Amino acid sequence: MTIRVALNHKTEYHYDRQVELGPQIVRLRPAPHCRTPIVSYSLKVKPASHFINWQQDPQSNYLARLVFPEKTRVFGLEIDLITDMTVINPFDFFLEKNAEEYPFTYSRQVTRELRPYFAKMPLRGKFEELFNQISKEKMPTNDFLVHVNQLVHNSVGYTIRMDPGVYTPERTLREGKGSCRDFAWLMVNLFRRCGVAARFVSGYSIQLAPDVKPIEENAAAGVEQDVCDLHAWCEVYLPGAGWVGLDGTSGLLCGEGHIPLATSANAIGAAPIEGGVSESNVEFEVSMSVTRIHEDPRVTKPYTEGQWQAINTLGDQVDQRLADNDVRLTMGGEPTFVSIMDQEGEEWNTGAVGPTKKPMADELIRRLRSKFAPGGLLHFGQGKWYPGEQLPRWALGLYWRRDGIPIWEDDTLIGDESKDYGLTHEDALKFMTEFTRQMGVKDQYIITAFEDPVKYALRERELPVNVNPQDSKLDDAEERARLLRVFERGLNTPVGYVLPIERNYTYDGPAWHSGLWMLRGQQLYLIPGDSPVGLRLPLESLPWVKESEYPYIHPSDPIEQRPSLPARRAMIMPQNMHQSGAVWEEDGQEADPSRPGKGKSAGKNRRHVTHVGRNFDEPQQVPYGESESIDNAPWNRAPKPGESAHWVMRTAICVEAREGRMYVFMPPTKTIEDYLELVAAIEHTASILKMPVLIEGYTPPYDSRVDLLKVTPDPGVIEVNIQPTHSWRQMVDVTNTIYDEARRTYLGTEKFQIDGRHTGTGGGNHIVVGGSTPADSPFLRRPDVLKSLIGYWVNHPSLSYLFSSMFIGPTSQAPRVDEGRPDAAYELEIAFAQTPKPGDPTLPPWIVDRLYRHLLTDLTGNTHRAEFCIDKLYSPDSVTGRLGLLELRGFEMPPHARMSLTQQLLIRALIAHFWETPYTAPLTRWGTALH
Q1: For residue 769, which of 714, 731, 816 has the smallest C-alpha distance?
Q2: Residue 479 confidence class, pLDDT cut points 50, 70, 90
Q3: Closest by alpha carbon to 377, among 4, 818, 147, 700?
Q4: CA distance 635 to 26
Q5: Fewer CB within a 10 Å sphere, N or C end of the chain?
Q6: Domain 97-269 carries which CATH code?
Q7: Per-residue confidence (pLDDT) for residue 482, from 0 to 100
Q8: Distance of CA 201 to CAs 146, 251, 520, 694, Å?
Q9: What confidence score (pLDDT) does residue 469 get?
Q10: Which residue has the higher pLDDT, 212 or 708?
């Protein structure tokens, strides 16, 4: 990872007459103790008629002694050197045992040899004040060096000073500014006053423009372009380490960019050029430049700009071929990130969740919302639940409409989980009451939810006699926190509020309705637990219904063609009109059950379901034991004993004030239109009450008209499930944005093993390919493309291992189809023979799943743990498994966005090629040669 640079330094003196030059001493050759590798060095001198002798002074500095036998009007030097900017750790040095802490002492012999480097300037005035600021307490030597270096750096301002000579420490401090040589001489004298041998150094400073700018806004961003200059700094002698450089100008220790030319016990002895000249007027010219002549690819810059332009051009060419062939390919992915600030924490190595992971994920998804989906809906839900984990993991979702119309308009109404708004259950009741007005339903149906006193009383009785619920001493931390939370709140304090609600379709059209929940007793008692109210509802206590008549919500077939989503507008009708506030803009159509809230009769139905106006703060509570309905609606009819109550509402929206924040638990809905209408009503309710809310609960049903981005936890990493992209340029923009915003959230892509070897995040970077809709998927329209990919991967094992993590083989996260199964090639050939040819008019979409589902698995038959995962291609298990997506899991997380993009372009190009020319080469039996 070395950058080779060429430094050019020209210095010329132009005299107004012919002059005699005395012997000139030039100290412009890298000193012997230079740690930066010097590949080549040359010195050119004007005039050409001169004699040169190379010498070394007592400090071993290289001196060029120049003698000029003739008069001249020009004296010039040109230095060219080539160096490898190999990274040098300035703290990588050994210290003798007695020098590991300051103050330390030198041996008698070393003290005699270092005597010139202890010479001190007078201690007075501001110099004495600065010296007194140095801590005299015992401390590690490295800390002492940094302490003095930072003290000098922060005490004096840097300025470019063209006049010759070096200021005394007192003058430098009095003026409050100085050049690099003034900084160096001040630091030399400070160290000597502290009893540490120090010397003055002159040399070259090479600064290369960084590949990556710092995250902090006010942090030093480095130079804008590569620069070099003559510089000066200080070196101190440490027993065991030798001479260690400190640059007070930058406040840093010296690294590969510091190339020493001369060292001296005093500043005069390190002057770059020293000599005499006869009397004359002179003009002085100096120029310096540094040029990169070779750069190894590195994780911060894997490609040169020329190479990247070529990759971009190739991406555009692949896009054109995909468009010409009507492939309709989309690409997404699942990049993973780790914390930059805490790479040793359990949550960033093995743990799925932890104290900092969710706040960082929350910040990341909000940043991505501002980039990809202004007006998108943020959903704070629950994700997967794995064995051994007490609770499901959290999952943050971002949903936005592909047509660009906002789902959530006012960003100030999106709650922040890091803030305590001071909201209570009373605010939750206000919110729910106003929400019923927005939806045009009766607030009498609001139900108050309590913790179950009986179950918690029993739990309290199980505690030891010498503890109390506030300090239960239980081993289970989550159980302790749960008991403390419940008893501090009190069993008589409402946890939240529940409103049964669903969309009904009547002869007047679709409309929202609420109704009774007929439960035993006079209160709704939640199932004990830590989850939101919506996940702890006693649904099994609702009236019994036959399994065959249960009103399950069946998701729509994802392959079904859908019309455009209706345009959203938040409109609050006067209360006396008894109409919902969140409606969909009319398009002149009559009622259509597939498009809720549309047409004239939909509005008529909303007026038919009248709103009962009541006092805002005191909605009527419904006693559940009543045998007669308070409304003549059919869904409120009490069932007879043993009667299957299929008409009873079984979905509800819940509002809960938790930790001072307002959470709204969404119910399941059949269509995306229903879900978006509920969200519109929630936002308008929040706007009226000026109350930020967080949406949780059920996510919107899958719909190809809405894009989705998710941020979820995985062991050791945060995973981002990015939205599908439709072109190479869009993919470049999305990938670069993901990497950039993750870094601004202090999330990185690199980890290191104990021996220093670089690795990925450990979470992978799965690539997902498919179509805009399942019907557009290239793999459902042309199963032979999947056949070609599998065959090509089998015959080219480097594709499986070049981009993978260190964990490979049949038990890895993405085993090859032929790893650990000698008969895999034989079975694949049978499946290949049955794969429909291109252009087959009788091609059913399920055929590709039936051919390959039993083959693309790991050793246990798990289809998810496979190099080619077809879980979401056309699975018979669920609607969300029939999305036409293929997931390639054999990719480790690349450290740079352009590396990820190049991998994605490889997949993109192969699909374009196999669409035109199916891969038909026979499968290779690798056997034990595979590894």
Answers
A1: 731
A2: low
A3: 700
A4: 100
A5: C
A6: 3.10.620.30
A7: 59
A8: 18, 16, 88, 61
A9: 52
A10: 708
Q: Is residue 461 predicted with pLDDT exceeding 80?
A: no
Q: Is 8 left (phi over 0), alpha (psi -120 to 50) or beta?
A: beta
Helix/strand/coil for 283? strand
CA angle, corner 552, sides to 548 and 554, nearest 5?
120
pLDDT of 504-527, one tens digit each? 876 667 789 999 998 877 689 898
- The answer regarding whether domain 305-373+707-930 maps to CATH 3.30.590.10 reads yes
Q: How far apart are CA 881 and CA 44, in angstroms?
A: 73
Q: Which amino acid is at 495?
A: V
Distance, in Å, from the CA atom of 515 to the CA atom of 919, rounded to the nearest integer, reads 60
What is the pLDDT averaged over residues 61-68? 96
Say which residue the tokens 């049903």 belong to: 701
Per mean pLDDT, which range of 140-149, 247-256, 582-591, 865-874 is the poorest? 582-591
Helix (H) or strand (E) holding 734: helix 728-744
**In this structure, which amino acid lies at residue 258?**
H
Amino acid sitting at position 892 = E
Q: Which residue has the higher pLDDT, 664 or 880?
A: 664
Long-range contacts formed by 33-36: CB under 8 A, 24+ apart: 33/60, 33/242, 33/243, 33/260, 33/263, 34/259, 34/260, 35/88, 35/256, 36/83, 36/84, 36/85, 36/86, 36/88, 36/256, 36/257, 36/258, 36/259
Pair of tokens at residue 839: 């252009």
Model confidence over 294-350: pLDDT tens digits? 998 989 999 999 999 999 999 999 999 999 999 999 999 999 999 999 989 999 999
Q: What is the mean pLDDT of residues 216-234?
A: 87
Is the per-residue pLDDT at 813 higher than 80? yes
- Whole-angstrom distance, CA of residue 800 vs CA of residue 906: 13
DSSP string, 468-533: BTTB---S-HHHHHHHHHHHHH-TTS--EEEEE-EEEEETTEEEEE------SSSSEEEPSSSS-G
Region(s) of the chain under CATH 3.30.590.10? 305-373+707-930
**Of 817, 785, 819, the residue nearest 920 (C-alpha):** 785
Dihedral angle sign, alpha carbons of residues 65, 67, 71, 74 = negative
- Give the side-chain half-sphere CA count within 13 A for 94: 3
Range name among 164-168, 315-319, 377-381 with the lowest pLDDT average: 164-168
Measured between alpha carbons, how far is residue 159 from residues 176, 182, 797 in Å?
10, 10, 59
pLDDT band, residue 460 (cuts 50/70/90): low
Query: For residue 432, which phi and psi values (nearest 5 degrees)?
Result: -65, -40
User: Above 70 in pLDDT, residue 735?
Assistant: yes
DSSP codes joined into one string, 206-245: EEPPPSS--SSTTS----SS-EEEEEEEEEEEETTTEEEE
Query: Are 817 and 855 spatial neighbours (Cβ–Cβ below 8 Å)?
Result: yes
Q: What is the pLDDT of residue 465?
A: 52
pLDDT over 90, % of the chain? 70
Which comes out higher in pLDDT, residue 180 or 508?
Answer: 180
H helices then E strands: how many in the chain? Answer: 19, 39
In 3D space, the residue among 902, 485, 885 whose CA is nearest the CA of residue 723 turns out to be 885
Is the Cα torsion angle 542, 545, 547, 548 positive or negative in sign? negative
Residue from 440, 430, 434, 438 nearest 496 by CA: 430
Q: Which amino acid is at 687?
A: S
What 8-state DSSP symbol labels residue 746? T
Positions of CATH 3.10.620.30 in the chain:
97-269
Closest CA to 500 of 635, 684, 629: 635
